Structures are given as structure tokens and as C-alpha cells.
Amino acid sequence: MSRCRVAGLDDLKPGGLLRVDAEGVPICLARLESGEVHAINDICSHEEVELSDGDLQGSEVECPAHGSRFSVLTGDADGFPAEEPVATYPVSLEGDDIYVEV
Amino acid sequence: MTPPTTCPVHRIGNIPDLITTVRSKSVQNSPEYFAAAHKLDDGHVTVEEFVGGMWTFTDGPEHRRRRKMVNSLVRPEALDAMRENYILPAVQRLLDEALAEPDADGRYRTDLVELADRLFVGFGANMIGLTDMDDPERQAKLRQIIPGIFGGVLAQFFDNRDAVFQMALAAKRTFVEEYYRPAHAAYREMYAKVERGEMEETEIPRSLMRLIVSKADPVYEDDEVGIRDAILVFNTAIGTSVQSVVHMVHDTAEWFDKHPEDRARTDDMEFLTQCMEETIRRKAPFISFLVRRAGEDVEIGGESIREGDELHIEIPRANRDPEVFGPDAADFNPWRERPEKLPRYGIGFGSGPHACLGLRVVLGNDGHNGSHVRFMQKLFSHGIRPDPDGEPQILAMSQDESAIEDVVTFMSYPVVFDDWTPGNTTGEEHVA
Questions:
Q1: pLDDT at B428 over 80
Q2: HSE (CB half, 13 Å, CA atoms) of B276?
Q3: CA pair distance B354, B359, nearest whole angstrom
Q4: What pLDDT shows up at residue B424?
Q5: Which residues of B touch A81 (CB under 8 A)?
Q6: Chain B closest-CA separation from residue A50 CA (Å)
Q7: A80 Cβ under 8 Å from any chain B Cβ
Q8: Contact at CB, A66 and B359, closer than 8 angstroms
Q9: If you measure CA to CA, which chain A residue comes closest to B68?
Q10: What is the pLDDT of residue B56?
Q11: Residues of chain B whose C-beta is under 8 A from some C-beta in A?
Q12: Would you call A50 an interface residue with chain B, using a CB distance cutoff of 8 Å?
């Protein structure tokens, strides 16, 4: 497992999503309104769509294509038509830098 | 308009090729080709009055932007509100009205198409944001224009097209002048109140009209685009919904004749959902094909397709592919094993960027508690079954080699309720 700096906190506003790549893995960073940052795989498990183009509502990402919903905390599929989870990745903050382990 | 009737037509009728086609960036969703299927020469009426500019007839970034916008109409809290605040109370009220008196033989009968029309007209009106829809006369008038709007979008599937267009244009005028514009004005007034600080924007009902009036997308600067998007929601929320529930009653009745032990499962949402998924798989979208256009040369299933060729996307046929769904793929079987890498409904809601917005309404946010399935549960709780003394009426539509015998549009479907007592909301008392 490797730890990568993927973005600065200034790149990701509260309530926002950001597509980053870590070691070639497409990742959707999500910053909750509380300030917490989470990382899930960016590709919807239903069809190949980038979740980072969707919306963050509370702690769920809504897929822009078909409205599937995923918890950014657990990766679980919380809303049809997706039924399979997406991977989650550990996130750590150092100062204003966001690190993800993949 | 491009003269598509001279183009080669490619029929796409198996799952792998169909998925490749509808997900391909080389394939476009062309309103002109859609309108011209079945060699419709005057398709410009369909394009210019009904489908041109609808979000489903856009591609690429514009489609993605607009689809993301309308996804807000089917978020979990919106689905809960639709089901609990509208669908379930309305079902009970409509059953009370339709089954107020028994026939001379003591049985309670009604027409399921009419019952479902009445339910889903209110549902579609809510989705669009039409106003003053508590008025029974306005509801009835809106129901009367359903066939006209349906014909305007799908004129290419009818033989008597002049008459269809006349009815369609009259229906559109009624829809726009008596329903769309008053609702638009009401929402404009709500936004004026928000500007004056007299109400919060969050108090404005979530609906397509809210998106249109707030110009949630720049395309809504063009009034006609909003009207056509409303027509799309009208057609799908009502027409497709009605057919899905009527066909499910039809399909399950045939199943129960062969498998009477499953009648006891009609309160089981998982079983009912599997029934709905099986009906959707075999019959949705309740026409034999959709149309796409090759935007550039492309190879699909080993076949070379040239730019400009017409593609007929035969969803019901592909969804009966025995290599995917087993040797009995053409039959209704709610216990069918789920195929690998596909949902039970196959591609009945479409696939790729244009997959149906209504999927989350029909099956629910959790896939097991959808509005349509709960409606079915309510009907079965009162012992609904086809009326053996009634004859369903089927809409006459153009037929070609893509037609499948049991993919039809029911215009009426007589049913009888074996467990109905007026005023009994549980369906526990047996009357017959």
C-alpha cells in the first residue's frame, strides 16, 4: 500500500467532490460540510461513470448518470440501481495536504 | 430534416450488441430518426412539436448535465414523499370510488387501465408540478389528452397518422394552455415571493416546473424545451407506468394459474418486485424498438455500420435472449435465476446514459419498495385478477418484423376484486 499526496485542502470546498488519481487508481475525494475528507473509488459500480461528477448530499455521493448513491464513509451502495459497493481508501491530512493510501 | 427513410436499418436484438450500441459514443440519439422509424414521412411534426430538444434526445455533455439535474426529482426523500403522500392514499381513494357498488352478481369490477390512468395522472402532474389538480374536472380533462400526447410522440407507430397528428396537436394545445402555462405562472409567482422575502425557496415544491422556472439549466431559456420535457414526463410517468402495472397483473394471473401456491406471496414485496422486474424485462418499454443513429462508422457485433445508418434497438427481443436468461427466456418466471452481471430486469430500463429516470420510482431507492410495486401490493391485497367475463382492448399499432405478440398497449383491462368490501382498507374480508 502506498501513501500519496493527491490534493490540497484548498482544492476541495466543504460539500464538494474532486477527482484525483493515486498510483493510477481513480479516486473521488469528498469533503463533508463538517470538514472531514473521505475517499472512494471514482467509478460507479453500476455503470462506468465518474462519481466525482455527481453531487455530495450529506455523506452520500449521487451518481450523475442514474442517481445511484454511495456512502463516502463505507463505500456501500445506498441507492438503486447500484447494488455493489465501491472501494474506500484511508485519508489523512497533514497541514493543508490530503493524502490517500491505495 | 435528413431523409432517414433511405438509410440502411440495422436491427440490434441481443444483449451484448445492444449494450455496446447504447453505451457507444459513436451512436447518437436522433429525434429525426426516432420520428421517421416505420417510414414516417411527416416526422417533422413529432420532432418540432413533441420530442426535439427533450433531454432524452440530447447526447454528450448536454445530456449528462440535464440528466444530473432531473435526477434530483427521484432522490430518496422525493421517492418517499411520492409513495407515502400521494400513491398509497390515492390508491385507496380511487379504489373506494371505483368499487363503490358491486355488479348484479355481487362481484366488484373495474377497468384497470382507467384506475391506473387516474392514479398516474396525479403522479405525473406532481412530477411536472401542474397546479390545481385537486379539481376532478381538471383531472378528467388531463386524462382525456393522454392518447393525443402519446400519439404525438409515437406517431410513427400508427398507420392513421393524419388523424393521430390532429389529435396530438389539439392535445398539446390543451396541455400547454390549460396546464403547463398556469403552472409556470404559479411557480413564477412563488419565485417572486422568494425574491420579496415572503417565502423560502425550499418551500417551493420539488418538481420539473421548479427546475424550468428557476432555469436550473440554460436550455430552459427556450420555453419550448420546458414544454417538451414536461411532455416527456407526462408520457412516461403516465403511459409507461400504466402499461407496466396492467401487464404485471396480466402476467402474474397467468403465472398463478400454473403456480397457485404463489398466490399467497402477493403481500411479499420481494416476490412482487421480482414479478415487476420480470414484466419489465419481457415487455418494457412497451414498444418493440427504440431508434438510434450511427454518428460515425462503427462496428457492432461484427457488423460494419456506416455513419448515418439507422439502428433499431429491440429491447424486448434482446431481453428474451436465451443465452442470457436461460432456455425459457421468453416466459414470465418471477423465480428466474438472476443472470450474471445483469439485474433481473435485464435492460428493460435501458442501459448507458439514457437509462430510464423512472427506474428508481418503479423499484424504489432500495430496489424493493417502489411506488409501482406498492400499488400492486395494494391491488393484490384486495384480490385483483383479470375479469373472466371481460375482454381487454388493445391499441392497434403498426407492426413489422420487430413486433412481439405480447408486447401490446392495453386500452382497457377489466378486472375483478375478490377481497373487497366498501370501506374495508385491509382487504381481509372475503366478499365473493
A1: no
A2: 30
A3: 12
A4: 64
A5: 343, 349, 355, 359-360, 363, 367
A6: 11
A7: yes
A8: yes
A9: A64
A10: 94
A11: 23, 64, 67-68, 71, 74-76, 343, 349, 351-353, 355, 357, 359-360, 363-367
A12: no
How many domains are contained in chain B?
Answer: 1
pLDDT of residue B427: 45
pLDDT at B5: 52
**Residue B425 placed within a domain:** no
Question: B360 contacts in A (CB within 8 Å)?
Answer: 66-67, 79-81
pLDDT in tens, A8-44: 999 999 999 999 999 999 999 999 999 999 999 999 9
B278 burial type by CB count under 10 A (0-12 exposed, 13-18 middle, 19+ buried) = buried
Which among B220, B305, B112, A80 is positioned nearest to A69, based on CA atoms?
Answer: A80
What domains does chain A contain, in order, with CATH numbers?
A: 3-101 (2.102.10.10)
Please tell me the pTM assigned to this model. 0.93
- Chain A residues close to B23, C-beta within 8 Å: 47
pLDDT tens digit sequence for B335-358: 999 998 899 999 999 999 999 999
CATH number at residue B65: 1.10.630.10
3-state secondary structure B313-331: ECHHHHCCCHHHHCCCCCC
Kindly report the nearest CA distance between residue B360 and chain A, in angstroms. 6
Domain span at residue B129 reads 4-417
- Render pLDDT for A41-74 as a digit per residue (tens, 0 to 9): 999 999 999 999 999 999 999 999 999 999 999 9
Say if CB B415 and CB B111 are below 8 A apart: yes
